[in-house]
Amino acid sequence: MFSDWPSELVPQQGWGDEAAISAFKDAVPWSVGRDFVAGTAKHLASSLGLTKPGPPIRSKIIHDKQLQVLMPALGYGLSFPLSEIDILRDCVSVYCEWLSALLPNPKSSVPAPILNDPNHYARIIINHFYYLFVPRGAQGPDVINRQAVLCHRVLRTLQNIAQNSPCLSEDTWQTLLLFLLHINSALLSPPTVKEDAGEQLCERVLSVLFETWLLACARCFPPPPLWNALRESCQRWRHRGGLIDQWNRINFALSAKLISFMYGPAFPQIKISSEDDLNIIPVNMSRDCIAQVWYRILHIIGNPVDLSRHTVISKTPAFLKYAISSELVIEPSQHPCLQMLPSIFLSAMKGVSGLVDAFLGVPNTSLDNLNQKGRQMSSSSSLSLSSDGKSDDAGRVLSSGRPKCNSLLHLFGPWLFEAALINCNLQASPVTQHKSDGGGSGGPASRRPVSVFGSENSRKSSDSSVPGESHTDRLAHLSPQHFQSGRAEALGALCRIFCSKKTGEEILPVYLARFYLALHQGLRQNDGTVVSSHHDSNASQSNRHGVRTGTCSETAASILVNGVDLFRLDLQGVVSLVPSVLGVLEGVLPEGELRAPSHLPVTLLRRAATHILLSILPLPLHFQGLQVKEVGNNSNERITLSHLRPQLVNLLSNALQVESDPVNTQMLLGGLLFCVQDAAFCEVMDSISQHNFSTERDHNIMSSGASDTVSSHGDYNSLLDESCETLPEGSLGQVGSSGFSSAATSHDSAHALFVRAIYLVCHRLISSWKSDVNVSLAGLELLSGLARLNIAEQDGLECKRAVKWLCDYIAYQCSRPPRAHSKDLHSTIVAAFHCASVWLVAHPYLLQDKECLATVLEVVELGISGSKSQVKSSDAPRLKHEKELKPASMRVKDAAEALLSCVLSQVGTFPSVCGAESLSSLLDEVTLLRHCNTWGGSDQLTRDTAALHFRYFVAQNSIMLALLEQPLGNHQDPQPTVTALIRGPFGRVVWTMQLRHLPRHKSSAKLYTVNPGRPLPMNDVGIKHSVKPKYFPDSVDRIPLSKADKSIPSLESVILNDEKSALEHDKLLQILDHQVAFEDNVRHQVERETTEYPDVETECAAPPLCHEFQTARLLLSHFGFLSLDALQQSVDAAVPSLVALDSSMAGFARDLDLLDTTNNRTIDTAHVFYVRAGQSAPQDILLNVVSSNTVHPHFLEFLTGLGWMVNVYQHPGWTGHVSTAFTVTTPPQEVVADLNHGGSCFSGRSHVLYWSDALSEVAFVVPCPAIAQQNQGSQQSLGSTSSPGGIVLDPNEKVAAGGGGGSGSERSDSLPSYDPDVDAGSSLSSHTSQLSFGHGENRNRKFGRQTSAMACSDHKVFIVWLESFDDCYTFPGNELLPETVTGRESSSWKEKEAVIYIIFIHALTNGLFRIKLQGQNAKLSMAGPLVDGQVVSRRVLGTLVRQTALNMCRRKRLESDSYQPPHVQRKLRIQEMVQKYRYEMNEPEFYTHLFTSPLC
Predict the structure, then answer these.
(1) pLDDT beyond 60 at 213
(2) Which partner from 40, 284, 666, 984 sits 20 to 30 angstroms from 781, CA to CA?
(3) SS3 labels along 345-409
């Protein structure tokens, strides 16, 4: 910069008024001169008032000639040896007092000539001060301390004058600066030795130099020669560590000022901790001056990389002089002080790295962070590597106004690239690093030192690290390995610069090439990095125990930690680094013991490596045929990325086996599930291609570019198995399709990965993960994801083993000691029960295996009762009534009941004929009554009226029976018929039952003819004998009576003795005679009528059929509910086993509706947003989905991968809002939609995206303004929908949801109805939010009852598609909350801070997608399978996002203390209805009630 200007730094011999002092020194002998100087200095010092009390004495020096005599003497005294410390002190005191003439208030002891011309004499005094700082040679520490005290006083005085003097002239400023340069040169230029004044004064003289220089720049800008002198001087002092410390200090202070006015106050500022550093920059320094000074100071030490070259640093006259005079040192580069160059080089690189962070806008950048021993991970990375794994976005967000990467590389790139390539042989090496057995290291012949370091020095590197030997006690034997820390810092800074690339930003190819070359060299592992001794001891100990030990160099560790985003940023050609990175990952992840740099925790290093691994995983299948030439490989050999996939899979599997950190383990589990699903979907796509096309496939296409039609079908069957079409089902263990024969034989095929993942996860879950709740949940989520996969080659044995392991896991967790039982433990058990349910629903054939069925039922019994009936097969089973009901917790009991219900009602039958949208029957009281034979009413039938025709009973205090005794219209036979509408904890079912004497298949044949005709008369009917029956034998009258017989008086004796009895007896005889006569008359009349037999006029006809049956009583009686014990209260139950309900009470129908709308599955809602580049306003974001022209081409395809489209009016399941959920109604108007929409069709007004399985259901809503669906002129009836993948989805082919009856149930009066005309300018969600939380009469209106389910619904899940990744930091999540109201929120959800989980999706230009998760700060909220920062392929994007959203909600429910499962909520609602509407009747009244018609 100033090479064309001469330096003003004259030789030291000519400095300090040498001529005048030499003349004085030569004129008198030493002793005389000493006495003269001592007397003069003492006399002048005594008049200053410093040694004696009292005010200072006015100086008697009034002429310039007096000063011309005295000042050379004082200057001569300053050159005295340190033994004359008193004389030196007096001289310093006199000169310091006289310099006060430059201050506004000079001391009274200052001579008058100096007051008259202060600048002239000040320059003389400053020149004389030089002699005080000249080193006196080897002195004792006490003597040097005395000299340092005087030097400090002089420096304080000069600094005070520079800061406060109003009259400093330009010449004085230059003299002062030159003085500071000379004293620094005198003290710092010589090599560092022990007990040297320069070592003690280094920091002070340098700080005064730079601070005074900054003052001069603000008041009298130094000319170029002075700047050149400063640059040359600093380059001669670079062996002093204090110079780099001060250089960093000044650079940070200037950069703080520069950044503040360049980028504004919103840009993150550099934190200056010291108060002195805050005021180091003069206030009056202009912006132009700051910019000029900043750039000049930045380059004042020359190239910082020269600090790694000891031969360059020692090429100074001072080092040469020392080498000539020393007997030990032969070459200047062998001076012992050069042993400090590695730490000095590291300090300089940290300074440059800190400036890079400052310009990137990294928060909390400060000088103190540079002084820490080793830097963890830069905040500029998109992933936080904190020890607890929780993300802290506020502390690591880069400023959006940061400069471009090219600008930073123009400024710092030359230094950083040069530092990163220290000791690198830039000639291409034929050794490749992608082979797993090589660990990423080349052979010794592949590395040669550069010319700066000889090979001999490299071989002596081990000798330079002898422990216990001081740096100054040995000659310099520096090797390149000693500078690896600084090199690692430079590589880390480069990684942070390139990782700060914005979306769409272009980086010059020359910088990319240099960067890749530097990374390739830095990732090579054979740099001979010296690892600390404690690592060596740990390594030897681990080797004795048979544990593999890996090594990671400092440079590779810095690249991993600071470059986690390298494969997520669309860097052109970055895939060429995959082989090099993979070699390092193999030395970091799969090793049980890792030898890493001492300042970097192994856990954080492995976490960074895991992040990079997750970014690389999709590349082999995405670029199947892409051939990559490795950086540095001069041969023509190229690597096909698909060949690296087995290595990646093995690396992932091995890392999971040895990983012990919970956060790292969860990340690896997410990557493992992605690998299995990606492989499965890829094989499905290949099979489709082979089936549909006869031509040979081109293997160079991007496989994930084949569209995500894998999950874009419109029916449940396609989405249930997570594949685009149901593959042929074969027997267990057989290949279902010949198209997978080649894939099945590969070790990285979907089937092989499936089996491997099950074994690995289940084994680790039982052995080592069971005590960690987060890892256990992540493992169970992975197993649930694997269960839903439909792989061509299903291995039934592996599936059975997975269920067996799950049951063993539950049994082990339940059997842990009581002190180990906690909420977290029970959360893992609940999650394991859910996972088992998923497996059984997805693989119903498992229950056909007796052993598997017994295992499942045993663990269900364990969960419900707390113990097994038969612990061992040899034990006698204990019956149910013999066991005490002691479950681990009610949560565990509820989960076990849910599994049992799933086994009995869903396994093998899901989805039902009603479709996957509903597990319950779609029939209700209104629909059933309209289909009765006897119903002739109008169509205006309400739930209240219909309920009166039913008998309502509650059995076991949990099952509600609604019995209809009228036959339905489709049954014409007059059979005893009852229709039972059963509402239980697990749903609503309808059964129609008939009492038949024969089975239905036999009762169709009539056993009698319609007209049998008359029988033929038979006159010969035989002889009719009139026989009088005898009731006792004839011999009974001959038996004599005994006394006992006579003990009972005869009737005659009784009548004769009582007159009244005689009269009554006579009256009774008369009645009997009358009755006998009447009966005889009737008998004779009948005989006359039937005399002639048969009667030819009498027709033989069958008796009339009975049409009235008390079928409800018959049903309850047959099921044993009408016993006296069932109708009486017991000790264990508060209510009898059977209770009748009064359906005529007010509110009964409303509570019945609430029960029906309480779903028997978990329901969740996710809202999808599309953010264009630079958008942060909510209204702009909502408008993006109006047209397909404003969204990414893959956005609509992604939406169809989340679920299938349903009409909210014809959909019986969850729709995203309570006003349209769980009811089938007629739409208020014809459903029309714009086929050119960008997602607005799924806003919830007419359609939503829906997905469900047997256990949960989720709705995906795309909020948009109401105007999005009022596109006049281009609306078309939505008869069919075409997915972007080309598959036409016809809604008529779907199972009609509730279409059998043609009419649906009315909406509940407690739920707000949607009226599109109420607010045409707002969305449905905003309309309902106004109903709930707006002004007026509906301010306090609640949606139904505030149950625990609503308390757990205050969290929101957002899925945000980003065009620019940086917009994730400005996404207005809280401002969009009014658009996401579902009606299930608690009344105070807006008054508190809402919990928002956000899944950001950013489409990369290479066809992959970058994921960012936000809001996972709770204990159990790190849900998978997606991981923050992961890169996924297009084919699995929708599936993984959906699974992650569901797992987020599921973990939130596990974490909530007030959450109750759906079946528990339904059971409680039934119990509430029992308490409100129960008939209070005793047993006789109950029986009487059974014989009464329900309408009576």
Answers:
(1) yes
(2) 984
(3) HHHHHHHHHHHHHHHHCCCCCEHHHHHCCCCCCCCCCCCCCCCCCCCCHHHCCCCCCCCCHHHHH
Decide: 770 and 662 in contact? Cβ < 8 Å.
Answer: no
Indicate the residue type of 1287: I
Question: Could you report the per-residue pLDDT of 673-682, keeping only the tens digit for each?
Answer: 999 999 988 8
**Angle (CA) 719 616 1414, round 5°:** 65
CA distance 971 to 1391: 57
> In angstroms, what is the C-alpha Rg of the chain?
48
Of the listed ranges 43-47, 315-319, 631-635, the one predicted with least confidence: 631-635
- Would you put residue 1133 in left (φ > 0), alpha (ψ -120 to 50) or beta? beta
Amino acid of residue 281: I
Q: Please spell the DSSP secondary structure of 711-766, one letter per residue.
A: G--SSHHHHHTTSSSPPPP-STTSBS-GGGHHHHTSTTSHHHHHHHHHHHHHHHHH
Report the pLDDT value the prediction gives residue 1230, as an integer from 0 to 100.
Answer: 65
* pLDDT at residue 737 in the model: 34
Q: Is the pLDDT score of 329 beyond 80?
A: no
The answer to whether 775 and 664 are in contact (CB under 8 A) is no
Looking at residue 623, the DSSP 8-state letter turns out to be B
Cα distances from 406 to residues 494, 507, 513, 517, in angstroms, run 12, 6, 13, 17
For the four alpha carbons of 46, 48, 52 and 57, in that order, the dihedral sign comes to positive
Q: Specify the residue for token string 């709705």.
A: 1259
Write down the pLDDT at residue 13: 42
The pair phi, psi for residue 1462, each rounded to 5°, is: -60, -40
- Rounded CA-CA distance 120/124 in Å is 7
Spatial distance between the Cα atoms of 896 and 834, rounded to a whole number of angstroms: 9
Q: What is the pLDDT of residue 209?
A: 94
Q: Measuring CA to CA, which residue among 102, 106, 87, 97 is closest to residue 146?
A: 87
- Size of the chain, expressed as the number of residues it contains: 1496
In terms of pLDDT, which residue wins out, 1005 or 928? 928
Contacts of 1423 (CB under 8 A, 6+ apart): 777, 781, 1416, 1444, 1447, 1448, 1450, 1451
Cα angle value 430/435/438 (rounded, 5°): 85
Tens digits of per-residue pLDDT, 953-1000? 999 889 999 999 887 766 556 678 889 999 999 889 999 888 887 777
Mapped onto helix, strand or coil, the DSSP state of residue 611 is helix
User: Within a 10 A sphere around the Cβ of 274, how many other Cβ atoms?
Assistant: 13
- What is the dihedral angle through the alpha carbons of 917, 923, 924, 926, rounded to the nearest 10 degrees? 130
Q: Are 264 and 287 in contact (CB under 8 A)?
A: no
136-157 in b/e form (b: 16+ CB < 10 A) is eeebeeebbebbeebbeebbeb
Token pair of 1296 as six digits: 């009609």
Exposure b/e, 248-273, CB count within 10 A at least 16 = b: bbbbbbbbbbbbeeebeeebbbbebe
Q: What is the pLDDT of residue 700?
A: 36
- Whether the predicted model's global pTM rises above the 0.85 cut: no
Determine contact, residues 1055/1065, Cβ cutoff 8 Å: yes
Burial (CB count within 10 angstroms: exposed 0-12, middle 13-18, buried 19+), residue 85? middle
Single-letter amino acid code for the residue at 136: R
* b/e map 1229-1253, b = 16+ CB within 10 Å: eebebbeebbbbbbbbbbbbbbbbb
**What residues are paired with 980 via a beta bridge?**
963, 991
Q: Which of 1100, 1170, 1489, 1167 is nearest to 1356 (CA)?
A: 1167
1169 — phi, psi (to 5°)? Answer: -125, 155
Highest mean pLDDT among 367-381, 686-700, 780-794, 1156-1170: 1156-1170
The pLDDT of residue 731: 33
pLDDT at residue 857 is higher than 90: yes
CA dihedral 1069, 1073, 1075, 1080 (to 10 degrees): 160
Q: Which of 1267, 1205, 1217 is nearest to 1242 (CA)?
A: 1205
Alpha-carbon torsion angle 997, 998, 1000, 1005, nearest 10: -110
